[in-house]
Amino acid sequence: MATQFLHKLTAVQVRSLPPGKHSDGGGLWLWKREDGGGQWVLRVSIYGRRREMGLGSLSDVSLREARDAAAKQRALARNNVDPIKERQRQKREAARNLHLLRDVARDAFESRKAELKGDGMAGRWFSPLELHVLPKLGRLPVGEINQTDIRDTLAPLWHTKADTARKALNRLSICLRHAAALGLEVDLQACDNAKALLGKSRHKAENIPAMPWAKVPSFYASLSDGTVTHLALRLLILTGVRSGPLRHLHESQITGDVWTVPGETMKGLKDTTPDFRVPLVPEALALIEQARQHARGGYLFPSTRKGVISDMTMSTLMKRRGMKERPHGFRSSLRIWIAETTTTSHEVAETCLGHVTDSKVVRAYRRTDFLEQRRAVMERWAQWVSSGSSPSLAHSETAALSASADEA
Predict the structure, then answer these.
(1) Domain of residue 179, residue span
(2) Residue 18 binned pLDDT confidence (cut-offs 50, 70, 90)
(3) Would you state the torsion angle of the CA atoms of residues 325, 330, 336, 339, taken in this order, to the nearest 10 degrees?
(4) How far apart are CA 106 and CA 87, in angstroms?
(5) Confidence check: pLDDT of 393 > 70
(6) Is 352 helix (H, G, I), strand (E, B) or coil?
(7) How far is CA 332 from CA 3, 277, 319, 349, in A?
(8) Is 23 helix (H, G, I), strand (E, B) or coil?
(9) pTM score > 0.85 for this model?
(10) Which GO biological process annotations does it have (predicted)?
(11) What CATH number has the domain bearing residue 66?
């Protein structure tokens, strides 16, 4: 093909071209959309019949990559091979070769990324497989894996790290079902049978240590130096949110006295978790104003190096003080305080912690997040937390606070 008919576009033009179809020559076209995006398309002729095949989106495939791909497909067409059918054949062949557990596991993970919080980038979905299953079973054909293999693999964890073993078994079961969907012969009962062989786990789950609510004001008062860590812990206590959304708090999430936590950062599947509104009481707004002095890139709790503070930053502070309690435990402190000192309904109390209550059908009709009711509860919690009470005065002061609030 004559070179003068090729490479009509430049990288600069590709970014600035208006919507429409633009030829690069040799049958390679860029279809530009109104929103600025686009698609690379190659037109070839096979036995006199014109064929069009996509070569990828403009955001994923550069001009050079599109030209390289087009050259390969044109070479096939010159040999009277339909490039579209050849690509489909290669995909089918790859699927047939996808038979080792490690390959199936990776494919299953890629298929489920869209369902996972943060696209599973934190590694929590795949890590139980990667750390505890694939080192022993990854090189085995998935069709040869049976309950005995699974039992022997998970036995060392079953009674010592039961939650990890349970997650690994669950992920492995998903991988086997994925393999079956690919058309591979697998034993779909292998995981259930392995669980029966392993028996009941002797491991007893332990809750994250939580501070008694009567001691929270004293601890809150001790967080007084205005550092990022102290401010983050204070806001964590006041709002009752999990540490992940708190650490990633961004200016754009705050509107007036409401903090909207993006659904994808909440615990659960991101496609079923709506955005969560957190009422910001005056004490919380004052903390946020202090935190703005440390903000970087809009994030209120930046790390000293890059990004935001780590999950261990607040835990380390408490550990260095010789405390057994951990930041996540303050959610329990709040929930027990609500139960013991207020007459808040179960639905409102659970929503204060971002928990989902009732069935999906009930929630479909009860279209409220109890924002104002929660605001009243969190204002009372903030008054108690910021009172600086000593543990010995806790019960008497809380009783007085509850009484005055009820009278109001």
Answers:
(1) 98-198
(2) very high
(3) 180
(4) 21
(5) no
(6) helix
(7) 71, 19, 18, 11
(8) strand
(9) no
(10) DNA integration; DNA recombination
(11) 3.30.160.390
